[in-house]
Description:
Elements lengths: L1 H17 L6 E5 L5 E4 L5 E3 L2 E14 L7 E11 L4 E10 L8 E5 L7 E2 L5 H10 L3
Antiparallel strand pairs: 1-2, 2-4, 3-4, 4-5, 5-6, 6-7, 6-8
Amino acid sequence: MKTKKRFALILVLAVLTSNALAEWVEIEKFEDGMRVFVDKATARRNGDTAQVLHLVRWAEPQVEPGYPNYLSTIVRTSYDCIGKREKYLASTSYAGPMGNGAKVIADEDEVEIWYSISESSLEDKLWKIACGLK
């Protein structure tokens, strides 16, 4: 358990200190203009599970009641490399694009539910990167 907590802390610190230094590589672009990037250097596998950070660059400013608008969100997800499943761990949204600008919202409410991953989906791409698969 200590390893998991240490790993999570390292990922959070990496996000907080190096958004501008991250090497975000675009892996998906949607028709509405939303783009998804991954920083492959954050991929970490521990046994049958792995984590990686991905960034959503929203096409339009996102509106949450009671918060300033935001243009990007960095998401931390856990992946089951054997069962091909995922679960949400945390996210942080930023006023600027590409994880820049002021932090607007941070959500650390880890979801305990694992979700199946469909072939050829965005999640499938992230799963393969996190788990070190081709």
